Amino acid sequence: xxxxxSHIDESGNASMVDVSNKQVSVRTATATGKVLFxxxxxxxxxAQDFLNHKGSIIQTAVVAGIQAVKKTxxxxxxxxxLNLSKVQIDIIPLANTLQISCMVKCNEKTGVEMExxxxxxxxxxxxxxxxxALSHDIQISEIQLEQKTGGKYDFKR
Length: 157
Prior knowledge:
Elements: E1 25-36, H1 39-47, E2 51-52, E3 55-56, H2 57-70, H3 72-75, E4 84-94, E5 97-108, H4 113-131, E6 139-149, E7 155-156
Antiparallel strand pairs: 1-5, 1-6, 2-3, 4-5, 6-7
Helix pairs in contact: 2-4
């Protein structure tokens, strides 16, 4: 099976994929990413239960990520608008790291991979924004799709 770019037409122009003939099915996607901190910054945040003068770093990032998932089609030009069934963002402290996971689910004609990746990305950016006063040596890394179900094929990393 030859794979081709789906968002480029025969003339090489950007094109939104026509999903009108596809079947509605349950679609899920999970993406992950990490925010890495200098150890002294992470220790300070952990000692404060990840709270700062702006509020709960983790809960603010969760809400920001959920909002971003719902706006993915506005941010990424060729994404379809989707009616989402579920968005779950989990942020877990590990050694000098906040590990982010975003699971998105819908009953639609196209998948939610971009929504899951957007949720992780904006959650990570929100964490950076809330913590940058402590250090600019914070890294956002390893944002990737972990799995997707529904559609032509499933994927699991």
